[in-house]
Structure formats: C-alpha cells, structure tokens
TrEMBL record:
Catalyzes the gamma-elimination of phosphate from L-phosphohomoserine and the beta-addition of water to produce L-threonine. Belongs to the threonine synthase family. Its EC number is 4.2.3.1. PANTHER family: L-THREONINE DEHYDRATASE CATABOLIC TDCB (PTHR48078:SF6), THREONINE DEHYDRATASE, MITOCHONDRIAL-RELATED (PTHR48078). It comes from Planotetraspora mira. This is Threonine synthase. PROSITE patterns: DEHYDRATASE_SER_THR.
Length: 351
C-alpha cells in the first residue's frame, strides 16, 4: 500500500479539477471506518462509524474545502468568506493559509465551540461574531460575496459537495458495496446531499450494486426538514447543527425521497446519551452534533425501521476535542493527591 495523497488526487477523475487546477490539500479524506461493537449489539445490525473527526482540521468540512479552495485559487480569488457554526470556519481558515488567500468568517456570537473558535483565530482568519444566528450569518455572507470580490466557500458553493461526496466513495471502496442504511446528522443539509451524490454516482457506474436508505437526523429544536418549515429561533446543545433554514433543503429532501429514507428529529437528551455511549463504549470521541447519527440510528431501531443483520454506516462528523467545555461539564471532578504512590493506590481503590 502507498501513502494517501489527499482526496483530489485519489478521486481526481470524479472531481471538477483539471491538470491546471492548483491542488490545495492537507491530505484530507482516507478516514477510518470503525466497526461499532456496542451499537451493533444494541441494534442487531452491522454498524460502522465513518470517523470524520480524523480529517486534518477535525471535521468532514476538509473534504469540501480542498476542492472549494483549489477552485477559488484557480479562478483567481484573493479572498474567501464563509458563515459557520464553527467547523467550516476552522477548515476554511486552514486551507486559506495553505492557498495564500485571506479568509473572513462570520459566526453566531457565543454559539460556537471553543476549539473551533481557536482554530479560526490561530490560522489568522478575520473572524466576526454576529449578534444573530447561523442563518443570519449565511444570508450576510451571500450578500457580501455578491457585492465584493470575495469567494463564498459555504456548501452553497457546488465544489464543496463535490469534495464531500468522496466519503461515500471511500465507504463503498472499503466495504466492497454500499451499506443498506446510512445515518447522518443534518444541519445546513449539504453533507447528506453530498453523500447521496456519491452513492448514486457509484451505483450508476456499477461500482456499487445498490444505494443505501439515507436517514438524516436533526436536533429537535432545530428540525426544519422534519416540520417542513424554517425555524426562526433554533436551539440545541449541538451547536454545529443549530440551523433553522438549511441552504440545501431541496437536495436533502431529494436524497431522502429517492433513497426511500427519512429525516427525523432527535432530542438533546438522545444526542447527549449517544455522545456518552460512543465515548465510553466504543472509544470514539465525537462532538455532540456528530452523535445525532447514532442517536438517530438507535431511535430508528426502536421504531422497527431496521432489518436485523443489515449493514449500517453512521457518519460521525467532527472530533470531540472541538468542544472541551461540553466534555468536561459532564465528567466527574478529578481527585487531587500528594506525590505519594500509596495515596494514588487508595484513591484508585487498589489497596
Ligand atoms: N456535524 C458537524 C460536526 C457539523 O459541523 C455540521 C455542519 C454538520 C454535522 C451538519 O452538516 O450542514 O452539511 O448538514 N456544520 C456547518 C459549519 C454548518 O458551519 O461548520 P450539514
């Protein structure tokens, strides 16, 4: 086996690049598909986790960003802009550095996890905290990109979804076929749309014999695709998917309907429980929004939506280290001891 070359080189013939496109890469993609023993036990299915938190900036956004930033550079952009709940801004900031572009990001003030804020700042992005929601930020960035020489790298930029579809390719390449069911968190609804594009493309060419049912999961306080109407004041502990008016609304509905799937809501309580289960029973540390896919799978199982033995992939979209505040708030307070092995033994109840 040879070293992974980043997803543009690995899937070059399936992406909108030519020999003259400057490839801006941090060697994203090639993420592990980890068997989930406990979740498999609980559901009677063969469940795998696509661990996207192992991308260079800690989320799946890097897949879209390598293509979007490469194309922006090819097209002569000097600056890029995005709205973000955190991960897109972290990714855009890093890839912009790589490309020598300036990067501006608009985030909802007080509603993004600390690790993500740190990433955007450390990579030197111009970060504006907006006194509004993600949806407000996205509307603003669209206006800015229309009126000023600055390229939009949110998932309304079609190059983003092209990059993100490669996650579906990797899953099929690894499993030898598409899974029966694919579970995924849904926020701005770009990623579910991208996976569906990838699965369709492989099935159309006979690389996969089937296409999975797409099961998308939104947080119940931010579930416009479930209610069918935009949510003016979305709320959830999963700040990454705190979105009331998803940009890829129609594409996500098409993915749901064409695949015979569903988009459902899961409560914050279910998300927090799945987060804990992944950390404590699978050894996989994800961020809250990512746990929505597993929370949703458990819910679908409870509703009798799964056939025993089916092969299921859950995308876990971002790394748990993104949000240390949440991780620590739910953990026990560490015990402090003197420099004394016996004190350690007694604290550990070894003696
Ligand atoms: N999971 C994580 C960790 C995310 O950061 C996002 C989106 C999603 C799931 C949902 O994906 O929007 O394609 O439906 N984060 C965006 C951001 C909105 O700005 O980082 P989606």
């Amino acid at each position: 086996s040879r070293a992974w070359r980043g997803l543009i080189e690995e899937y070059r013939d399936r992406l909108p690049v030519s020999t003259t496109t400057p490839v801006v890469t941090l060697f994203e993609g090639g993420t592990p598909l980890v068997p989930a023993r406990r979740v498999s036990q609980l559901t009677g299915c063969e469940v795998h986790l696509k661990v996207e938190g192992l991308n260079p900036t800690g989320s799946f956004k890097d897949r879209g960003m390598t293509v979007a930033i490469s194309k922006a550079l090819e097209e002569g952009a000097k600056a890029v802009i995005c709205a973000s709940t955190g991960n897109t801004s972290a990714s855009a900031a890093a890839y912009a550095v790589r490309a020598g572009l300036t990067c501006a990001v608009l985030v909802p003030r007080g509603k993004i996890a600390m690790g993500k804020l740190a990433q955007a700042l450390v990579h030197g992005a111009r970060l504006l905290q907006v006194e509004g929601s993600f949806d407000d930020c996205l509307e603003m960035t669209r206006k800015l990109a229309e009126n000023y020489p600055i390229a939009l790298v949110n998932s309304v930029n079609p190059h983003r979804l092209q990059g993100q579809k490669t996650a579906a390719f990797e899953i099929v390449d690894q499993l030898g076929d598409a899974p029966d069911v694919h579970c995924i968190p849904v926020g701005n609804a770009g990623n579910i749309s991208a996976y569906w594009m990838g699965y369709k493309e492989y099935a159309e060419e006979g690389i996969a014999t089937k296409r999975p049912r797409m099961l998308g999961f939104q947080a119940s306080g931010a579930a416009p695709l479930v209610s069918g109407a935009p949510v003016t004041h979305p709320h959830t502990i999963a700040t990454a998917i705190r979105i009331g008016n998803p940009a890829s609304w129609r594409l996500a509905e098409a993915a749901r309907d064409e695949s015979g799937g569903a988009i459902q809501a899961v409560t914050d309580r279910q998300i927090a429980a799945a987060y804990k289960l992944l950390a404590q029973e699978e050894g996989v540390f994800v961020e809250l929004a990512s746990a929505a896919s597993v929370a949703g799978l458990l819910q679908a199982h409870g509703q009798g939506m799964l056939v025993p033995g089916q092969r299921v992939v859950c995308t876990v979209t971002g790394n748990g280290l993104k949000d240390p505040d949440w991780a620590i708030s739910g953990a026990p307070t560490p015990v402090t001891i003197p420099v004394d092995a016996f004190a350690a033994a007694s604290a550990l109840e070894l003696a």
